[in-house]
């Protein structure tokens, strides 16, 4: 509700400005973002000096992830109403989101000068230092935040993570243990404890904490399981079939919920949209192979294109989950390469949604695709993206591939690269994972 007796500035403007602002709030609350934005902009047009309208628009833009626009509107709102801390908070977050850490620090430091006893500001400053690779400064601010807000679980875990990054894992353990006695099933705290014990060389204590983390339901169970496997004796920088099978068989029961809700998994939808743009792709007319099918999320997306839809996966429990969806004409347990090449010249379309992140060298996959596709057929896949001209294994035990590497292995397999574009296959730790979506064609 708008208080027109306050200093929002509306009392001196035409009634239409106030009505537009009120309508904008109602539309925003109803989830009608485009109309809410129009209303807020109408209010600004009628009353350019109304900080409330600027701030409301900025908040809407931030909710939509339009951080550059949000930063500018928050700046204008804060200039008009410098007493409104929420505009300052929004401005700092928006600047951080667009990578302007110095600008964000300037705002937070200004707020800190006004209220040095504000724990939220201390936490925000610490997070900026973390993102800037300054863990020692982050530790200082997290400690101050905990002094002002004792017992805050999130801050305690973030302090532990900063201590680990600054080279003091023992202090991280000492901070985490009292918290985990109070909250023994806190996934992020258990993950940090496992990492701290690992840095201290206590492998058994590390794996105990990480198994407890898995049982507690972490945001990214794949990363936790990968760290366990690494500790327990996978000395090579590769992913064995046994590792991948064990990982996903264990993960099968929580796979759909974790990917679609926690990780905002969208590789199947991204690849379906890409496939719809390819020449010769027609609904209901294709023999489609969903390789690495998991529980069948991609099968649902690609069923309308398929005359025949075949799925294969290395993990038997995943295949059983996919079977229950009832979208496949046939399913089998098979590794990636043999699943593709097992029936030469059989497929108009092969789909690998978020599968190649578990493969480093893609040359065998591309050679298998050249064998498995019919002339004119397409192989559509997603990968996580890295720079350079090769591939690398990240800390989450998923591979990232460069665009230059993809171009090279596609050409060496005698295939034609039809599409290569930026994509976001999933989110992780609240941030989009940089990726690539591509389609290659067998021409002959």
Would you kindly provide a written description of the structure presented here, covering whatever features stand out?
With 444 residues, the protein is of the alpha/beta class. Helices cover 55% and strands 14% of the residues. It is built from 21 helices and eleven strands. The protein has helices spanning 15-29, 33-46, 51-63, 67-80, 85-97, 101-114, 119-131, 135-148, 153-165, 169-182, 187-199, 203-216, 221-231, 241-251, 255-262, 267-276, 297-302, 316-325, 336-341, 363-372, 403-412; strands spanning 286-291, 306-313, 330-333, 347-352, 373-385, 391-393, 399-401, 416-423, 427-428, 431-432, 435-441. Strand 9 and strand 10 (431-432) form a beta hairpin. Helix 13 (221-231) crosses helix 14.
Question: What's a concise summary of this model?
Answer:
With 444 residues, the protein is an alpha/beta fold.
Poorly predicted segments: 1-13, 234-240, 254-263
Kindly state the number of beta strands.
Answer: 11
Class from helix and strand fractions? alpha/beta
What is the alpha-carbon Rg in Å? Answer: 26 Å
Average pLDDT value? 85
Distance between the termini: 66 Å
The main pleated sheet reads as: 9 strands, mixed
Separate helix tally: 21
- Which geometry do the CA atoms define? globular
User: Helix amount, in percent?
Assistant: 55-70%
**Residue share in β-strands:** 5-15%
Describe the protein's topology:
Blueprint: H1 15-29, H2 33-46, H3 51-63, H4 67-80, H5 85-97, H6 101-114, H7 119-131, H8 135-148, H9 153-165, H10 169-182, H11 187-199, H12 203-216, H13 221-231, H14 241-251, H15 255-262, H16 267-276, E1 286-291, H17 297-302, E2 306-313, H18 316-325, E3 330-333, H19 336-341, E4 347-352, H20 363-372, E5 373-385, E6 391-393, E7 399-401, H21 403-412, E8 416-423, E9 427-428, E10 431-432, E11 435-441
Parallel strand pairs: 1-2, 1-4, 2-3, 4-5, 5-7
Antiparallel strand pairs: 5-11, 6-7, 8-11, 9-10
Helix pairs in contact: 1-2, 1-3, 2-3, 3-4, 4-5, 5-6, 6-7, 7-8, 8-9, 9-10, 9-11, 10-11, 11-12, 12-13, 13-14
């Amino acid at each position: 509700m708008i208080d027109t007796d306050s200093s929002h500035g509306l009392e001196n403007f035409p009634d239409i400005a106030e009505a537009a602002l009120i309508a904008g709030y109602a539309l925003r609350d109803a989830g009608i973002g485009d109309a809410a934005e129009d209303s807020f902009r109408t209010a600004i047009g009628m009353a350019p000096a109304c900080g409330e309208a600027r701030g409301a628009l900025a908040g809407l833009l931030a909710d939509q992830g339009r951080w550059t626009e949000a930063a500018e509107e928050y700046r204008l709102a804060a200039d008009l109403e410098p007493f409104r801390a929420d505009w300052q908070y929004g401005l700092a977050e928006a600047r951080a989101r667009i990578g302007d850490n110095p600008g964000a620090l300037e705002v937070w430091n200004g707020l800190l000068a006004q209220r040095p006893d504000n724990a939220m500001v201390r936490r925000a400053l610490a997070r900026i230092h973390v993102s800037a690779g300054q863990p020692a400064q982050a530790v200082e601010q997290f400690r101050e935040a905990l002094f002002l807000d004792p017992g805050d679980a999130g801050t305690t875990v973030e302090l532990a993570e900063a201590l680990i990054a600054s080279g003091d894992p023992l202090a991280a353990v000492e901070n985490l243990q009292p918290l985990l006695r109070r909250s023994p099933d806190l996934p992020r705290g258990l993950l940090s404890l496992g990492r701290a014990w690992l840095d201290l060389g206590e492998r058994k204590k590390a794996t105990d904490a990480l198994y407890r983390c898995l049982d507690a339901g972490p945001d990214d169970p794949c990363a936790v399981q990968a760290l366990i496997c690494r500790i327990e004796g996978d000395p090579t920088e590769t992913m064995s079939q046994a590792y991948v099978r064990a990982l996903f068989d264990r993960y099968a029961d929580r796979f759909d919920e974790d990917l679609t809700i926690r990780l905002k998994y969208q590789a199947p939808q991204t690849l379906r949209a890409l496939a719809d743009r390819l020449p010769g792709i027609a609904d209901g007319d294709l023999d489609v192979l969903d390789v690495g099918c998991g529980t069948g999320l991609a099968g649902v997306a690609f069923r309308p294109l398929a005359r025949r839809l075949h799925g294969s996966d290395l993990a038997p429990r995943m295949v059983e989950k996919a079977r229950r969806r009832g979208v496949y004409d046939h399913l089998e347990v098979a590794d990636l390469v043999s699943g593709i090449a097992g029936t030469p010249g059989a497929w108009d379309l092969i789909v690998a949604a978020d599968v190649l992140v578990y493969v480093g060298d893609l040359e065998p996959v591309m050679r298998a695709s050249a064998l498995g596709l019919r002339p004119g057929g397409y192989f559509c896949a997603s990968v996580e993206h890295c720079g350079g001209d090769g591939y690398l294994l990240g800390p989450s035990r998923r591979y990232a591939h460069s665009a230059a590497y993809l171009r090279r292995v596609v050409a060496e397999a005698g295939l034609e690269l039809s599409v290569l574009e930026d994509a976001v296959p999933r989110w992780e730790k609240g941030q989009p994972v940089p990726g690539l979506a591509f389609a290659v064609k067998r021409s002959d």
